[in-house]
Amino acid sequence: MKLISADYIFPITSEPIKNGVVTINSKGEILAVLNPEVNEINWESVEKYEGIICPGFVNTHCHLELSYLKGKVAEQTQLHGFVGELMSIRDSFTNEERLLAIKQADEEMYQNGIVAVGDISNGGSTFKQKQHSKIKYHTFLEVFGLNGSDAENIIEKATLLKKEYHHSKAISISAHAPYSMSPKLKQLVNNENDKILTIHNQETASENELFKSGTGALFNQLSCFSEAIKEWKPTGKNSLPSYLPEFSPDKKILLVHNTFTEQADIHFVNNYSENIYWCFCPNANLYIENKLPNFELFLTEKCTIGTDSLASNWSLSVLDELKVIEANAKISTNTLLKWATLNGAAFLGLDKMFGSIEVGKRPGLNLITNIKNNQLTNKSEVKRIDC
Q1: By C-alpha distance, which of 152, 133, 234, 238 is closest to 191?
Q2: Distance between CA 40 and CA 375 in Å, rounded?
Q3: Which residues contact residue 133 at a Cβ distance below 8 angstroms, ignoring those fewer than 6 apart?
């Protein structure tokens, strides 16, 4: 058993505790959360740290299988340029290079205080690493295809791949993006028994343009990939209100990126479903589009944090993502940490174990140092606290 303290404990489900103390056993289970203003504490038994202690981070959006592409794709090419370059180089690496990069990326996330990950997969290359990882994964098998006649075959292949996974309750067949799927494929994904899914949302301005008018850079790129895009029917509306009704409001859906999401889109979502979560991957947004979401539009929403892949980021660090948001929006540290912990755990259905420092949970403990006035700085660092 250990007693651990810091300048502040952020339990997440309650207010930060100045000089709070967490009692934890050798299995990582929280036995007590103590407030020195209320509880009597034997300080001789306490390990004291400078900084703040929070629960382990939850990374709700990653592409672990793309880790071999770190530093290989040019920055700030916009989404259509990023996808085009990725497609042109992805077959230039050996299986051994890919597997080594997956292993190293998994370890990087663990060292960066990440305890759980929602990970996108297009194949089974990450399955073995996930089975033996110290991190808890939920895998989203991503499907796409604009030709409706291919939809059933796409789902059949995903279903067979799903059966290869080691944990049947921790894998879902999920959507890629609203512009890369035929109406038939969206319908089949929606008909799956999986309760949670993700979808890349409004990552580029040309996505909204595609839905409004059937034109733009994204339309031009899709024309190179599939003749089916010629049958595209513009809605005259932004992307989100155009496609979200194709998915049941009972599904728990993670909308990823939201770089070009507007207030009216959020209003539409709130009227449509109570089960929508919003994921931000700000470093990927800077890497690809050099544009950030308007984070302050989402202060009352269920927000989470993702790192995206090493093909579109410089690291796999939730803290690095929070530092970008901190520098570009007026959001409290407690709120940011809730986005990075409890909200992500709730989306993944892991909040009975992760997400907050509460008795009975095993959330992992992160120490964040180089804090100023209880706010993150560009020099802030994270370290796991071992039990």
Answers
A1: 152
A2: 28
A3: 106, 110
Distances in Å between the alpha carbon of 9 and those of 49, 134, 173?
11, 24, 38
pLDDT tens digits along 85-137: 777 777 778 999 999 999 999 999 999 999 999 999 999 999 999 999 999 99
Q: Where are the beta strands (DSSP E) in the chain?
A: 2-9, 17-18, 21-24, 30-34, 46-55, 57-62, 114-121, 136-143, 171-175, 196-201, 252-257, 276-280, 303-305, 365-369, 381-385
Measured from the Cβ of residue 315, the count of other Cβ atoms closer than 10 Å reads: 16
Pair type for strands 196-201 and 171-175: unpaired
Q: What confidence tens digit (pLDDT) does each residue in 248-284 have? A: 999 999 999 999 999 999 999 999 999 999 999 999 9
Six-digit token string for 272: 């449509």
Radius of gyration of the chain (CA): 21
Whose tokens are 């991503």? That residue is: 142
Q: How far is the C-alpha of 49 from the C-alpha of 43, rounded, in Å?
A: 13
Contact 67, 309 (CB under 8 A): yes
Are the beta carbons of 341 and 56 closer than 8 angstroms? Answer: yes
